[in-house]
Amino acid sequence: MIVPLEHILLLAFILFLMGAVCALARRNLVMILLGLEVMLNAAGIAFVGASLRWMEMDGQAFVLFIMGVAAAEIAVGLALLVYCWRRSGSLDVNVFSRLKG
Amino acid sequence: MTLYGAIFYLLAAIILAATALALTRRALMHAVVYLVNAFFATAMLFYLLGAPLPAAFEVIIYAGAIMVLFLFIIMLMGVKDGRDMDAKKALAVWLPPVFLGAATLAAGWVLITAPAGAKEALPMARATPAELGRFVFDRYWLGVEAVSFLLFAGLAGALFLGKSGDEAGKTAKDGQGGAA
Question: Which of A42, A37, A35 is nearest to A20 (CA)?
Fold first, then answer.
């Protein structure tokens, strides 16, 4: 163990917090998706750190699954984004406040 | 503090700085490129923590596929940033990415060419890609199948949304002059 697990978890926590704040506070759809990516990445760092701490490979396996989920999520997310852009010509989430427009 | 400890804190600082800069940019393009830098640093962090296969996938999937998809979408939509770079601002725009990129490269260089004595700690903890691949397909084969189904569903959903977006765009333009 080259650094204590707490430091790795602290890094992951701060990253996750930044991603969450970005996803919640920014109004641009692209920035919201980027915030989601940062949150998934932070979870991956925590998994790899834990994998090193307990010398088990399960954590690294879960990082691979996180990457698969992130790829699928971003494909649908960006398709939705393009759909919204075509419909309204805007990326501001406030434009999409009605369910049926 | 050992050499690897120092590299860890350097990489952590790079990741935090690049992510913070990315998430506060107004220009979408700058945000995506900062985030690519953060993902490269994360890949080195994974390598440092004894996970070479996730490190490679971090570069291939996150920095290579997902961020490039973002770049494609931003360029495809032609979002206007409305900012011209003048000579005074140019340095302030260039300096942070140059510094972060150089720091990432330096950390990677030290990681690859570390002196032989310092490498003792790492091989113990490292799961080789072959080991990890066999482990995943051995114990988590159901999860692998589930992810492949999920990717297929994502593909189908993206295709469907792209297609129906065409029709919706047409009707919106016919109905209300294309503006909303």
Answer: A35
Asked if residue A63 belongs to a domain, the reply is yes
Class of domain B3-123: mainly alpha
The count of other CB atoms within 10 Å of the CB of residue B16 is 16
The reply to whether A42 falls in a domain is yes
**Residue A19 to residue A42: CA distance in whole angstroms:** 9
A:2-31 residues touching chain B, CB 8 A cutoff: 2-3, 7-8, 11, 14-15, 18-19, 21-22, 26, 28, 30-31
| Tokens linked to B159 | 């295709």
Do the domain assignments include residue A13? yes
Which ipTM score applies to this complex?
0.92
Interface A:B, Cβ pairs < 8 A: 191
Report the CATH number that the domain containing residue A20 is assigned in CATH.
1.10.287.3510
- For B31-64, what is each residue's pLDDT tens digit? 999 999 999 999 999 988 888 899 999 999 999 9
Q: How many residues does chain B have?
A: 180
Under 8 Å between Cβ of A74 and A66? no
* A60 lies within 8 A of chain B by CB: yes
